[in-house]
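Consortium newsletter contribution from the modelling node. Members have asked for a concrete example of what our holo predictions look like. Here is one, prepared for the fe (ii) ion complex that several groups have been discussing at recent meetings.
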Amino acid sequence: MDIYHVMLPRKIRFGVGCLDTIGDEAKELAAEHALIITDPGVYEAGLVYPVKEQLSRINLSVDVFSEAEPEPTLPRLNAIAEDLRKYNYDLLVGVGGGSSIDTAKGLSVLLAHGGNGQDYLGVNRVPKPGIPVFALPTTAGTGSETTMIAVFGDPEKKVKSAIVSPYLLARLALVDPSLTYGCPPKVTAACGMDALVHVVECYTSIKANDFSDALALEAMRLIVGNLRTVVKNGSDKEARKYMSEGALIAGIAFGNSSVTAVHALAYPLGSRFHVPHGVANGLLLPYVMECNLSANLPKFAVIANMLGVETKGLSLQEAAERGVSAAEALAADIGIPTHLRDLGVPKEALEEMAVATMDINRILVNNPKPLTLDDVRRIWQNAW
Ligand SMILES: [Fe+2]
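And here is the predicted structure:
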């Protein structure tokens, strides 16, 4: 790809303790009434308190909505917007994983422009900037703080859909690794695999460019070097810091390239069987890699090397193939299930999921090789 453009949040702050600067950032906006959006788990873990305290210090009136749901849905987003419209918020602060941050991004549009979530699904359907969003991830993985995408499930149609617009980019991505210190091992593992899948996919996407490649490789180094450690020992602050940094850089990388078939397959798995996004991605990664290898052996050989495979003396084919095993081993080491049947997915569901995957064209078009329905069927069967 010779021509590419780069989209970023207005500002990114990274580092342990950078949470303390959030008040200065809010001051710059002259905000008066802020809403913190989070989920019950993050709220109970006490992570909202320091955010609220910092914002209250500058005499901002701060409310908290702590009922964001995992894997948010359009009906729920619409209902929340309906309830909150009367408060005239001028700053939204998403504190949590991708679900809370995506909810904040969705509310930014709905509270500013009215209508419901369905009106804005698809690419570039948001007419103008919404309410400014500060995005504070409490997990290392999603990258939502850096991207112009917010994903919502549609329970009726059993699909996941996305609002994609540059107006969804956060005003501030504030990534303070200390917010991830208490993240439980299972969530740490799932989110870390999500981040790894972001870099593997954006590096091999047909939208990959020199900018996204440079970031993808650095993010891969940070994630592969620290993921096992943070799952095994969540109190390793150094490893937590590097995972947060890796996930942040991965978010910028895939936000300026794309994800590919792993994410396309993960959507129907998430919407039908409520498998967490990172678990679905981690499980599916080796099977999709196996299918995609032939489309870009040199890049898959590099990935193998980044995953710790000694590739010296191997052919590109051999190196790339060993990368698949290395991805599988990493997922297994951190407790990600390796087969769909381990998650209780019945074999009879595979055909429906294969057909549903083919509908995720927005993502599939970026896969390193064009996938037929038969290719997708094979991936689902292998993963079962
Ligand atoms: Fe993801």
